[in-house]
Specification:
single chain; about 300 residues; UDP-N-acetylmuramoyl-L-alanine:D-glutamate ligase; 9-stranded mixed sheet; 4-stranded mixed sheet; 13 strands; globular
Length: about 300
């Protein structure tokens, strides 16, 4: 029987900071955290790398996390994001264009994984270039009817359009969006005056989605389905950094749903896992093995 993977599909890149570089990219983060619930052999991150030294460093870095990867080599540089700090220490980002993850080829291997995929998480950033956008669309079209297709919208800089967002929502069955992104989408789609819940309900109904997941930072999060809503407060924690926290939320939420948890229980687990990730440095910490993740207690300062 063909193995049914949970897939993170899109960008893999390095954040180049003044103190050095760190591996990033939502798809790998999502896959890693889903794998902590489903087993690392059952998840895979799909992107593309260049034919350069940085590509080798990427493979080594991901290998330390026992993450399955499908990263074809293409004749473009491995992705980087240049991070600069102003006098107040506020960062700004330059996401380099025409890099490897902009040019993910739709290969036979990708087609095979898509045809038996259990769940796939994708965003808008990796669709800024027609090559990767075509591959993502082809992957989604090849997935089985029972596949969870999660559009974690992840609006970055100017790398999105109304058309890409609408097309992606039509292709997904779960939308994950934060409060700032929801405001932008409301303005873009012509309903800026609706409150957040009404916006989510409007999107849910218009596009026939199974769920809309709304995260609001320290102000909690909500999961809307056609006949229910789950709301959770954000735990108060001593924050080390927030890198990868949103991806850990998505990965643990999707994995919990696949493991048969209710929406409310999956939501509770996702909130607690993302809070734990905020207390750790980096996007891929190991969740505490001594704790049953389904009963992970709220972290306090």
């Amino acid at each position: 029987m063909e193995k049914r993977y949970v897939v993170g599909l899109g960008e893999v890149l390095w954040d180049v900071l003044p103190e050095g570089k760190k591996l990033g990219g939502a798809p790998a983060n999502f896959a890693y955290h889903a794998g902590q619930f489903l087993g690392s052999n059952n998840v895979i991150a799909i992107s593309a790398l260049g034919e350069d030294k940085l590509a080798e460093e990427t493979i080594q870095a991901l290998g330390k996390h026992n993450l399955n990867i499908l990263l074809p080599r293409v004749p473009y540089p491995t992705g980087t994001v240049q991070v600069t700090l102003d006098e107040q220490g506020i960062p700004s980002y330059e996401i380099k264009e025409n890099v490897a993850w902009d040019n993910i080829p739709f290969s036979e291997d990708i087609q095979r994984i898509a045809s038996s995929c259990r769940a796939v998480c994708f965003g808008s950033l990796a669709q800024r270039n027609i090559v990767s956008r075509t591959t993502i669309q082809g992957f989604l079209a090849a997935t089985p009817d029972d596949c969870l297709r999660i559009f974690d919208i992840n609006l970055r800089q100017h790398f999105y359009t109304k058309e890409i967002i609408q097309d992606s929502i039509r292709r997904c069955n779960i939308l994950k969006i934060n409060d700032e992104e929801l405001e932008l989408v409301g303005q873009m789609f012509g309903y800026p005056d609706l409150n957040p819940e009404s916006k989510c309900r409007h999107i849910l109904d218009k596009y026939g989605l199974d769920m809309v997941v709304l995260t609001c930072g320290t102000n909690g999060s909500h999961v809307f389905t056609p006949d229910s809503v789950s709301s959770q407060e954000t735990p108060k924690v001593q924050v080390a950094d927030t890198v990868g926290a949103g991806d850990s939320f998505t990965g643990s939420f999707v994995a919990s749903i696949l493991n048969g948890k209710s929406v409310a229980e999956a939501h509770r687990i996702a909130v607690q896992v993302s809070a734990f990730v905020c207390t750790q440095n980096g996007a891929m910490p190991t969740l505490p093995r001594e704790l049953n993740i389904s009963t992970l207690p709220l972290c306090e300062p």
